[in-house]
Write a structure and sequence with these properties.
By secondary structure, this protein is an alpha/beta fold. It is 44% helix and 16% strand.
Length: 312
């Protein structure tokens, strides 16, 4: 049976969207769909040549010439700041932010000194969202969609004692931690966006921000995310390669199918009153118990603020 498809007919004329990692896979299909709906779409990508090729293909396919690319390397916090500043200086609104880019890779460290999967999958998007939040608020109602994964259910939890996994590094559990962080971030972001507390002479009151947040699991999808498996598992992958590709052929979604839940969270009108939830196959799903721990979500938020330099 074909997986569910986003059925919303929402028109995005005069809306602006940013999709990270949009030169290929799920991000590319999300960007193409938003462009087809009439949005101005900015592909935030590390590889500028591939991003330009993706823009050309989207323009040709949709007829929407208001599609462009801007360099963003999530493995560099300075790049995140430069990108965000460029957006704030050049754009008057931001209606949809899709935090899609992700990586699963062997142990390595970014220029900022953090474990690469943690930074690319979580910290970079955490900082990006924070820096663009004022623009999202002035464009409200607006949305933040975080591409998560059911893999978060295999995580033992956020390793606050060794967040960068400098000891006992195993790639896939570290990836699972970053996907758990995606959902906890979405949950805490939604809680904080429920209202901005403003000091007033008569006390403190709460003003609705109009920004909602969603975590989306795209499913098992045939994308370039899996290109590092030979590097991760070495000779073991040679043994499991036939079964892996057989399983992918039989059960994995295409990028178009995988993009549907992300698109659903970005455009479906019925979701406008929902925030902080986890979605799969275009419907609300219950994440793991570890992904619903509000105390851990707040602890991760505060740690992320310190790691990205938003607080001391």
């Amino acid at each position: 049976m074909a997986p569910p498809k986003c059925l919303s007919q929402a028109n995005l004329k005069d809306k602006t969207a940013i999709v990270t990692g949009a030169n290929t896979g799920i991000g590319f299909e999300v960007a193409k769909d938003l462009a087809r709906r009439g949005a101005k779409v900015i592909l935030a990508c590390r590889n500028e040549a591939r991003a330009e090729a993706a823009v050309a293909e989207i323009v040709k396919d949709t007829g929407n010439e208001n599609v462009m690319t801007s360099k963003l390397d999530l493995a560099s916090l300075s790049s995140v700041r430069e990108f965000s500043q460029k957006i704030k200086e050049g754009e008057t609104r931001l209606d949809i932010l899709v935090n899609n880019a992700g990586i699963c890779c062997p142990q390595s460290t970014t220029e900022d000194g953090f474990e690469t999967q943690l930074q690319v999958n979580h910290l970079g998007h955490f900082l990006l969202t924070h820096l663009l939040l004022d623009l999202l608020k002035t464009s409200a109602p607006s949305r933040v969609v975080v591409v998560a994964s059911s893999v978060h259910k295999t995580s033992q939890g956020i390793n606050f004692e060794d967040i960068n996994y400098e000891k006992n590094y195993v790639a896939f559990p570290v990836y699972a931690q970053s996907k758990l962080a995606n959902i906890l971030f979405t949950r805490e972001l939604a809680r904080r966006l429920e209202g901005s507390y403003i000091e007033h002479v008569t006390g403190t009151y709460c003003a609705w921000t109009g920004v909602t947040a969603y975590a989306a699991h795209p499913g098992l999808v045939k994308t370039e995310l899996w290109r590092t498996l030979p590097e991760l598992y070495g000779w073991k992958f040679t043994l499991m390669k036939p079964m892996f590709y057989l399983g992918m052929s039989a059960f994995a979604k295409t990028p178009v199918q995988g993009a549907q839940t992300v698109i659903h969270c970005a455009v479906e009108e019925k979701l406008s009153s929902e925030s902080g939830l986890y979605y799969s196959d275009c419907d609300v799903m219950e994440p793991s118990q570890k992904a619903t721990d509000d105390a851990v979500a707040r602890q991760l938020w505060e740690l992320s603020e310190r790691m990205t330099g938003l607080s001391s």
